[in-house]
Amino acid sequence: MKPSLVLKMGQQLTMTPQLQQAIRLLQLSTLDLQQEIQEALDSNPMLEQQEAGDDYDNSDLPGDQSGQGSSEAAPEGSYSDLYESPSSTAGNDQEEGDWHERIPNELPVDTAWEDIYQTSASNLPSNDDDDWDFTARTSTGESLQSHLLWQLNLAPMSDTDRLIAITLIDSINSDGYLEGALEEVLQSLDPELGIELDEVEMVLRRIQQFEPAGVAARDLSESLQLQLRQMPADTPWLSEAQRLARDYLDLLGNHDFSQLMRRMKLKEEELRPVIELIQSLNPRPGSQIEASEAEYIVPDVIVRKHNGRWLVELNQEAIPRLRINPQYAGFVRRADASADNTFMRNQLQEARWFIKSLQSRNETLMKVATQIVEHQRGFLDYGEEAMKPLVLHDIAEAVGMHESTISRVTTQKYMHTPRGIYELKYFFSSHVSTAEGGECSSTAIRAIIKKLVAAENPKKPLSDSKIAGLLEEQGIQVARRTVAKYRESLGIAPSSERKRLM
Asked: Same domain for 228 and 185?
């Protein structure tokens, strides 16, 4: 086949650098966005944070910056309250005053943002930065192993026993239990040391006296016995609880209370405080030592009721107010191709696009949050049982955006309501048909199941089939396996495990 040149015309979707940056900022959480803004402030001299009491005109920012939030179920205040720009009188002459008119609004679509500008995230802090706290950014919570090793260093012990203790501590999992048999621990030690199994057992008992109580146990029964052993001797029903944890823990796990009373020769009113003492113990003692960092949630949107109407507004305290520095912006000169002027022009363009992307993010977030509140007024007024079915397509159609955009907006974004703080994705749920031909949200069904279980007779808990029957009486047609799925998602045990002595 002879090669030839063929000219074709076609269309394809491309992303400009501005759109790439806007999408990246859109999917950031509030805490990540705060860090991104701080890095932009540190790296771009054209950007600065507005101080309280400063007042500048918005006329120099691209696009419409004067849009106000609507009232009912809509934002209060303007987006210009968050992001400000200097007036066009910042320069001393016409050549410096119209800097905003000479910067192009678009870049070629076949370029990436990183090809034009170095991302602020790549700017690592220097060692002489007094505001950069190395400990706050690199430290992690204390692990269970480090907590046990700290106690080991305070315990008088021979070098051989210390080696055995370190090996045992390495074999303890995050729940506080010893993984593997002592014989396996013994095999991992150097045979030339001549260590016997009795020595390993003795060191294990030393470690079991460490905090938290119940650590280094080989099973649940041993862990409960260790915790009971550290209680005061005058604790009521202590001996009976130790006997139950040692000999009859399987009966308690199966909720076979009649057999348990027969074996322990206790009456029901006597067995009840014994079980309560057992239930006061921690089945996962290692969980008391958390190795993970605390996660903080900053709400992006605040919903409140005023004069009988639900109002939606951005959390203005979460994001600092930005503006373009008028002094540096006035240094940008026309028809000057020097390296310094080119650098300032690029920085100015990046600052303008950054502010515009932030405004676009907040406008989109506000539109989506407003529509969510419009759909879920029943939840705000009456609780989870009044939650309506809602999917991404419903919000996307209401605001005129793509579902992928709605998914980015609702991920890691939180709404503060009088009922608590919820992720925006919480308000989306599938639906189940009702007997009257309507729809019921899966979130509302979970709330009803939780309410039914809370009001059940502890001696005769409701089975999944019985719950499905009660829901059908309310006009909600749900299969038994669906009830089981919702029950498990709520962390509710099966009926056989919910049986209690009352």
From this structure: yes
